[in-house]
């Protein structure tokens, strides 16, 4: 087994962009992504892993940039037919995307682990970055909200993350364990990176898998995080709102507080340079650079800062 020299704790889109930029700046076979599976769900009897698939499709250059999820050039014949049947068509799965979920579900039913299936799908897509689900056990992120308890996709897709959250819980996480590959990557990589993913619902479920937080805490001097919050706002999704609703400041300062004790370095955007002194006062080293990855040259500059 080739061990990645850099391990990246990863959610979906924010992580996928950073992993792609890192792949431009270093040997991708030295990169391992430890990926959140708290968003995973079973629908139509199929196991769907949104964060793993977002990263795999993005690294393969197959991601749908217009939608922000799924595959480019997708068709929707199965969903249209399902909708006409009165089936559960609110969570859209494209025709080609469905093949991924069919394959994964069949392999899991044969006794393969999520780690094994992820490797198989990665080989098919010719990925050089190694993707590891943080755990092979089932965990599920749920939201206690003003309209009652919601599953991850109910909160995100049905309610378009527009309701106030009171708390977030990762069901099953206490009984879960990280895969041996994950422990190995976290223990032995030279550097651990926390991607600019949603701290509360992408990164925290990874940290809650027993053992993971301890390793990160012990290795904090080697841990560098990239803030997903720029000038008080998330580029996508509810990270800013959730930070505020769950007791943190909706800013890179709130991100620094959330990761207190876990990181040695935080990379923040130039737009947030004024916050650097107050973060450094908490003992976290701050690097200020461009952190918006929409343009490739900026993404590569951020990647160089992460690797420096
Ligand atoms: P999801 O699982 O697909 O929702 O994605 P993640 O949790 O990985 O990422 C969502 C976060 O990515 C949001 O909070 C965004 O602000 C952040 N994000 C997306 N693109 C960028 C980027 O180019 N730069 C930075 N710094 N953050 C980004
Ligand atoms: Ca996600």
Care to describe what's here?
- There is one protein chain.
- This protein has 308 residues and is of the alpha/beta class.
- The chain has a single domain, classed as Rossmann fold, CATH 3.40.50.
- 40% of the residues lie in helices and 19% in strands.
- It has a 7-stranded parallel β-sheet, sandwiched between helices. Strands 7-6-8 form a 3-stranded antiparallel β-sheet. Strands 3-4 form a two-stranded antiparallel ribbon.
- Strand 11 and strand 12 form a beta hairpin.
- Helix 1 packs across helix 13 and helix 4 packs across helix 5.
- The two termini are 26 Å apart.
- 44% of the residues are buried.
- The model has no long low-confidence stretch (mean pLDDT 96).
- The chain binds guanosine-5'-diphosphate (GDP) and calcium ion.
- Guanosine-5'-diphosphate binds next to helix 1 and helix 2.
Outline of this structure?
The chain is α/β, with parallel strands linked by helices.
């Amino acid at each position: 087994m080739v061990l990645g020299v850099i391990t990246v704790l990863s959610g979906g889109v924010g992580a996928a962009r950073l992993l792609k930029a890192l792949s431009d700046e270093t040997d991708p076979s030295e990169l391992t992504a430890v990926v959140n599976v708290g968003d995973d769900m079973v629908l139509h009897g199929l196991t769907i892993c949104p964060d793993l698939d977002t990263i795999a499709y993005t690294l393969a250059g197959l991601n749908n940039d217009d939608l922000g999820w799924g595959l480019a050039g997708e068709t929707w014949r199965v969903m249209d037919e399902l909708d006409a049947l009165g089936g559960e068509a609110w969570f859209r799965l494209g025709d080609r995307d469905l093949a991924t979920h069919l394959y994964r579900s069949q392999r899991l039913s044969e006794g393969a682990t999520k780690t094994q299936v992820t490797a198989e799908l990665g080989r098919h897509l010719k990925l050089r970055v190694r993707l590891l689900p943080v755990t092979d056990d089932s965990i599920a992120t749920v939201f206690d909200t003003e309209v009652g308890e919601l599953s991850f996709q109910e909160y995100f897709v049905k309610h378009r993350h527009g309701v106030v959250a009171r708390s977030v819980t990762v069901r099953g996480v206490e009984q879960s364990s990280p895969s041996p590959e994950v422990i190995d990557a976290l223990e032995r990589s030279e550097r651990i990176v926390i991607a600019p993913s949603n701290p509360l619902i992408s990164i925290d479920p990874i940290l809650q898998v027993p053992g993971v937080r301890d390793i990160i805490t012990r290795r904090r001097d080697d841990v560098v995080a990239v803030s997903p919050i720029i000038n008080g706002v998330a580029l996508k999704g509810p990270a800013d709102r959730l930070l505020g609703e769950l007791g943190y400041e909706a800013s890179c300062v709130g991100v620094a507080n959330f990761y207190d004790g876990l990181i040695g370095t935080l990379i923040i955007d130039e737009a947030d340079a004024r916050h650097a002194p107050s973060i450094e006062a908490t003992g976290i080293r701050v690097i200020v650079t461009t952190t918006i990855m929409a343009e490739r040259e900026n993404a590569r500059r951020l990647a160089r800062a992460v690797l420096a």
